[in-house]
Amino acid sequence: MSPPTVLVLGGGIAGLTTAHALRALRPDLDVVLLEARTELGGNVRTLHRDGCTVELGPDAFLNRPGDAEALCHTLGLGATLLAPDGASAGVMVAHRGGMLPLPDGLALGMPRSVTQLASTRLLSPLGKARAAMDLFLPDARVADESVGAIVGRRFGREVKHNLVEPLIGGIYGGDLDELDAAVVMPMFANVRGSLIRALARTPRPTGGSPMRAPGGGLDGVVRALAESLGDDRIIRGVAARSIARNGRGWRVTVDGAHLDADALVLATPPDAGRALLETAAPALAEQLGTFRLRPALTVVAAFARDELTLPRSSGVLIPRGAPEPLGALSAVTFVDRKWPGRVAEHLTVVRAAFRPASAADWIPRSDDAIAAHALEALRVLLALPAPRWTEVERFEAGTPSPTVGHIDRAARCREAARALGGLSIVGAAVDGPGLAGCIRGATQAAAAIVAGLG
Ligand SMILES: Cc1cc2nc3c(=O)[nH]c(=O)nc-3n(C[C@H](O)[C@H](O)[C@H](O)COP(=O)(O)OP(=O)(O)OC[C@H]3O[C@@H](n4cnc5c(N)ncnc54)[C@H](O)[C@@H]3O)c2cc1C
Question: Which CATH homologous superfamily contains domain 5-40+219-291+402-453?
């Protein structure tokens, strides 16, 4: 009897990890991965230019709960893992035409004590007094709240806008008033009353940043996953066009041909998944359509090192609604500070990440126009010389933005897929939001598929 076949649609980190884990659990499985682009990795895109290694998409994964780090060890990359540089870990926030340091030791922008806020100029005296009211306010918690609702109620508008929004809004690209608190700040799920008191009770994380990345760049993970799978199991540059049932299995149509499989893994962005499932599973397709990935753009600019000295900080966060030209900018990374050793000695590299409100406004603009806008925005913050070179990268389905009710929606989606038999959904929309979540979700999905195949 021939071994069961599993077809994985999408060669981002989620699809590649699922395929790798399937083969690791059951080496006899016939696993094939289909990727629409010619490059693997999805959002993971590493630039190697002029002796520099710069991430255009994600630049590190969270080392909690540990699945991503474990995967790197399995792939032989464990010894290369780095944390961002501790000495420059301090982050600045753009504020009134300048930059001010974010107070040390905040938890997602929230204070662990009132004194932590005493000296920051990111809050007015009134803003600090309002934040301290968290200690005394009665509990008014309701189910299914947004991050913005909780933070605004406990700490007031200034902490929400000047401390929490730049951090969380930058990571998730969304509006704090829409983001699901249960996903973004799960440590507060059962907290009633003061968040400061709750934070003060939790041990302060030790050991520096919880973020990790292979020294040579995240594309090393993609390459190693692809190698472990083998070239003959990967079809690149071919997009799935539709999905249909084929007896107890699935049939995927590609241009002028079809592929049959006993089990199917959907590891595409949710919009693509919705379109693929529209006929075969309209209810699931509709559920997939409720997940949001926001467009993102990054611009990397390299300068002669002797012409630009960066502040001693890993970068700058920009609050939503900052005046133009900062408007769509979410974060600036000083790459030589955050990842020393990744930038050639003669260069200084700055990365600007944008969260455009609409992909249609930004994605079609020329690289030159986008780079010019980025430099104009960066000049508000830094005295920039002319760059040696710039690179622009576009992510139409970029940053996962889990909105209120996300956890239930994701569980219902997974359950609906399971009920169809032999269909799994993985990736940033349902497992994310970051690489660590995608890797964990993919590993769990692979175990469930293997169990299901018997
Ligand atoms: C600018 C930016 C910065 C980020 N920073 C971080 C960070 O620092 N840390 C972190 O943890 N996370 C970060 N993220 C989030 C992280 O990148 C994502 O969570 C993760 O990469 C998503 O992986 P995925 O496999 O689910 O999806 P993707 O990477 O989107 O992969 C999906 C793949 O499916 C393919 N596909 C689509 N349609 C089809 C089809 N019809 N047939 C076949 N293939 C198809 C696509 O081409 C793509 O390759 C960042 C994201 C962005 C955009």
Answer: FAD/NAD(P)-binding domain (3.50.50.60)
